[in-house]
Amino acid sequence: MIGGLFIYNHKGEVLISRVYRDDIGRNAVDAFRVNVIHARQQVRSPVTNIARTSFFHVKRSNIWLAAVTKQNVNAAMVFEFLYKMCDVMTAYFGKISEENIKNNFVLIYELLDEILDFGYPQNSETGALKTFITQQGIKGQHQTKEEQSQITSQVTGQIGWRREGIKYRRNELFLDVLESVNLLMSPQGQVLSAHVSGRVVMKSYLSGMPECKFGMNDKIVIDKQGKGGTTDEPGKSELGGSGKQSIAIDDCTFHQCVRLSKFDSERSISFIPPDGEYELMRYRTTKDIILPFRVIPLVREVGRTKLEVKVVIKSNFKPSLLAQKIEVRIPTPLNTSGVQVICMKGKAKYKASENAIVWKIKRMAGMKESQISAEIELLPTNDKKKWARPPISMKFQVPFAPSGLKVRYLKVFESKLNYSDHDVIKWVRYIGRSGIYETRC
Amino acid sequence: MTDSKYFTTTKKGEIFELKAELNSDKKEKKKEAVKKVIASMTVGKDVSALFPDVVNCMQTDNLELKKLVYLYLMNYAKSQPDMAIMAVNTFVKDCEDLNPLIRALAVRTMGCIRVDKITEYLCEPLRKCLKDEDPYVRKTAAVCVAKLHDINAQLVEDQGFLDTLKDLISDSNPMVVANAVAALSEIAESHPNSNLLDLNPQTINKLLTALNECTEWGQIFILDCLASYLPRDDRESQSICERVTPRLSHANSAVVLSAVKVLMKFMEMLPKDLDYYGTLLKKLAPPLVTLLSAEPELQYVALRNINLIVQKRPEILKHEMKVFFVKYNDPIYVKLEKLDIMIRLASQANIAQVLAELKEYATEVDVDFVRKAVRAIGRCAIKVEQSAERCVSTLLDLIQTKVNYVVQEAIVVIKDIFRKYPNKYESVIATLCENLDSLDEPEARAAMIWIVGEYAERIDNADELLESFLEGFHDESTQVQLQLLTAIVKLFLKKPTETQELVQQVLSLATQDSDNPDLRDRGYIYWRLLSTDPVAAKEVVLAEKPLISEETDLIEPTLLEELICHIGTLASVYHKPPSAFVEGSRGVQHKRLPPRAGSGESTESPDVGQSGPSEAPPAVIPSQGDLLGDLLNLDLAPPTATVPSVQPSMQMGAMDLLGGGLDSLMGAGLGAAPAAMPASLGSAPAVGGGLGDLFDLGGGVGMPTGSYVAPKTVWLLAMKAKGLEISGTFARRGGIIQMDLSLTNKAMSVMTDFAIQFNRNSFGLAPAGPLQVLTPLSPNQTIDVSLPLSTSGPVMKMEPLNNLQQMQKYRKEGFLFSSLLEA
């Protein structure tokens, strides 16, 4: 298991050092600094073995978190734990920075003592932790016996992510369907790979211990319901139910509150949500993706010292919708000496430090088209190596889910308190963003 | 909110000031002072001098302060065992506290203090806490048993804690169950045969129930434990699989990977014609692909594991090639791993896409990545015959770019392509020869020379080309020298008239001017062959070479099986068995996949037919390169099982090491692409030469006479051998190898009756006489002995080569220890 956990600043000075196992000595702290942080070359692996000791590291801005072990630990678990550790710290004191870590080092030690015991991760849900690890530290004395046992039963209980007795005057929930659409397209416009990775983020402000059920236009569910109906043929089932077309989900993963065995057997998503904001599910789709934009590049080499670039972008969604924050990044060769750009819409600039022409458009409606053309002057070089021609990348945000996912319902049941599903105010929002959206040129 | 100020105290006399503050009456000031102490401790300053003062602060109602003091205690108790006793009372009192959080805190901290006297006091409170009414205390106590076991295993057994821990598996609280499972698994690892976990269908059922209810971490502990269970039959296996599959949708990647491990292992027991088997295969692909959308570090772990899974069951991901395409801003470690998997998944169906991608990658910036991409193109050519032509033309395009390292890499792989498809693509040789001058890496030079020698009859100026290399013969690396020697001999056999002078020149360079034994030996063999029987020489040197196999870098099957049992763990990231990087008894235990369902072969064979050659048992050459990597990177490796199928050529490589020819071992290692192994190596006389080497050097194992003797290092720790500590080194005096040992008695009683026995090792080292320890060894006494060794014992290849395993015996109890022989 994890033998020790160290946090360093960008210089390699140790800010937090907690050793859990006897086989990890103080020299491990230095070994990592010397061999990884101060290493001359770029880090080639997130796992490093130095003198039979394994170091796992992640970086957050310029802070290094390293877990150390001498055993054959579960490597995936160590990284998951490090991410979780970052989440917990962020939930307690905001951004992970040297300043914040130094200011909260006592708290961090307290957290580390709680969420890692002899190197075994323990309950690390911030909701639960915040009930008894507080920055006051004296809470222990003022608690009644009931409160104490409530804390411990929550920390160890089946519903470790939610405490009892939450009350809201207004029961409200927000669902955000956040998708990032990824594309790799060949210069000829052939889709080399495309997928959507989506997340359903829920903010719940609900009283008591509500039982929730979430439904979406999952093809498997819709088809099953279609078959259950009297006349629907499998092909027509898309029109039944919510009247929306269904989507094929390649794979999905859920927050630990979701009953996985129920999903496996009935494909229904039921859970008791944590209080506040959390990620309910993640999913991935590859079929019938709506690609919001298409990029058509045209690069022509005119002699050895000039390049002509023309890029057309086409928006491909309902004309009534607006895409925002559109940015097209056209890479330029390293020996570029000057660039002239003309664009029909938005603003375009050559950024020498980034070796790219950056074209920004604030808004663009669906089914429109826009174009940029540029002339790139090159310095003559003897460099035999050809310019690698990195792909043209794009960023944008659209108010729909490119996967086609739709929320069908989110039902809330709380039998002990007197509010019903109808009393809960529900909000649903769809945001599609570009992930890695690239077209080779 | 300005705790950062504690980090900036660097004044002199600081300790003195802190001491005063710690003894202050004001609570706030005390707390401030303790914080400063902890900050100094973090930065690595020694604040142990403040021990009594800090411990005095322990008696407090303030939980935050208490936790800080505990933190200090855990760090320094070991260095001040006597004073640490002062803390015992508070601990014992806290274990009785009304607040379960405080009870748990006390038992948790006490377990982290590795002082014998405190440990004694820990037993009673721990016993109570294991039966505490509060689950939070019980789950903490469960882990504490593992802590105590690490400090004093005997005590844990004597006190009966193991039984209590086993009872906790049936606890009503899932988290207690999970922690008990984790603790038991850890303890079981150091008692490989104890059957401590005692997994039976009932306990398995309990674990599977707890699996649905506990935290994500608990699920990992339970799944990892489940993976070590061996179901009785395929029905039990299937029912466990059915209950584990829902975990594949967990948000935590570690839960997913551990579930994959259980499924991959238990699947082995399912008959392949079972419907469920197919369903399971289908269910495995999506979650594996989803892992690739995790953070880059996790992607890396996932990719290393997918690499194993693809080798074991290529059918799972065969349609998922696209997800392994490299993204422009993937971190380099992710890119390199993806590339590996792309090649493994390459097949006739997707080769066009793969090639297009690889060509794209070959123009990227990162040198390692580009090289690997070029190499990958060559591997595709060898793997998918239909694509060979396209691959070769792609490689030629790349050579035209004249980017130095691309050209070199391309030439190395083209040589392999020639070996796979002889007499097909030789037309490109002319293009290759144009780039002769730009080659500066040994591997590329050697490859080019091999090509020139092999096709000497078709290259008009072959003699000129080879002659040009000959000028700087002594500056070349061994790899190139050996190739050059062979190539010129080949040339001579093909065109004897014009090249007589050349061959004599190279033979004299190799035999007279070189002090490399490999080169000399090979030179002499050729010389004698040529001078006694040129016809035989022709038969030997120009013999038809066997075609190289499809895949050369597969993991050797038994290792692969073991690694499959370690999915998700470090072993699967390193692609090495745990014994290669874990010290001591932990993890040395080899894990095995359960035996295949049905009568083995009969169920296996139809499948082989289906999925083509990729499933056929590949003839894998255990990569010596890896072995060497072990030797260099990891300073000490405990013994592992012998490499199962040692081929003659590898044995030779092993003997080369004896001659000090580390270089040539490397050469042979890289020769895992068998083409690098020159023809002569496979032929009989060469083997004879290699053996000759061994005999010559038989007496010369170890160091040159009268040279450096390595300082003694500890070979056996006292705690592992009931108090007997052994350190030692190897020396050579008057031509006799001696093992110098220091035996220290760290136990409480007198030790007598010592004896020593050597296990079989790579050098045949054995004691030449009995171990002479005259006096009984009294406590804390150290005795030095020298044991003369002979090399007449039985030989067995060890990993690493210079690993030596010995059994030290006293009072009828044997302790195995191992040491590295430094050559």
Describe, in plain words, how this protein is organized in 3D:
Chain A: It is found in: Cell membrane; Membrane, Coated pit. Chain A: One of its GO terms (biological process) is Wnt signaling pathway. Chain A: InterPro entries: Adaptor_comp_med_subunit (IPR050431), AP2_Mu_N (IPR043532), AP_mu_sigma_su (IPR022775), Clathrin_mu (IPR001392), Clathrin_mu_CS (IPR018240), MHD (IPR028565), Mu2_C (IPR043512). The complex is a heterodimer of chains A (441) and B (823). Chain A is an alpha+beta fold and 441 residues long. Chain A contains 9 helices and 23 strands. Helix content of chain A is 20%, strand content 40%. Chain A is globular. By secondary structure, chain B is α+β, with helices and mostly antiparallel strands. Chain B contains 38 helices and 8 strands. Chain B has a 5-stranded antiparallel beta sheet with strand order 1-2-3-6-5, with no helix packed on it. Classes of the chains: A alpha+beta (441), B alpha+beta (823). Chains A and B meet through strand 2, strand 4, helix 2, helix 3 and helix 4 of A and helix 2, helix 4, helix 7, helix 9 and helix 12 of B.
Features:
heterodimer, A: 441 residues, nine-stranded mixed sheet, five-stranded antiparallel sheet, 20% helix, B: 823 residues, alpha+beta, three-stranded antiparallel sheet
How do you describe this structure in short?
The complex is a heterodimer of chains A (441) and B (823). Chain A has 441 residues and is α+β, with helices and mostly antiparallel strands.
